Structures are given as C-alpha cells and as structure tokens.
Amino acid sequence: QVQLVGSGGGLVQAGGSLRLSCAASGRTFRSYAMGWFRQAPGKEHEFVAAINWSGDMTDHADSVKGRFTISRDSARNTVYLQMNSLKPEDTAVYYCAAGFRGWHHWGEYDYWGQGTQVTVSS
Which of 76, 119, 92, 101 is nearest to 37 (CA)? Predict the structure, then answer.
C-alpha cells in the first residue's frame, strides 16, 4: 500500500515558477513509476510527466516540454515537478500517481494523491 500526499501548489503570475512535491509512504516506493497529471474544470485528467522507478527515464507532455521537469528522490520517498514559465492554461488541479505499470495514462496507475491546486494569473 502506498499513500501519496501532494503539496506546493498556489497562485502565481504568468511566467513564474512553482515546485510541486509528492511524498510517498511505503517501502515499495522505489519500485513504482511515478506520474503527474492535471485536471482543469470540465476536462479529463491530462498526462503531464512520468518517471520510471530508477529515475533514469522520464517523459513530458508536449504542452509542458522545456518548461516542466519531473524528478524523484528515493531517499526522501518524494517525487517533484518543477514548473517554470507558467502559463494561464497550466491552471488545474495537479495529481501525483504511483504504479508498476504507470506511464501516460491515468488508469495505468494504482495510487493517486489528493491533488494540489495550481492557478496561474495572466
């Protein structure tokens, strides 16, 4: 069993930066791929970024490539999403997720955090 607690969201002006964190409990954290998704009002969950269990493979959605970076610190059982050059269209609730099979799709993950709100003003 893995519990995920996301944090770091907030209100920021366009062009600003935020770093989201997702702290995981459970000894098997190191075995899981980790992902970040976001959901804007009235929209489906959207893939943002993923990182494999060892941290040597990552993928980012085209919409955030070059601006967002996913990373993990297995010693701290934490995954991060560094978000730079934020745009108003990045406004959403951001969720972290963990799973053995996880990569691009919400349903591929087994555990999800509670979500943290990111609001980018123009």
Answer: 92
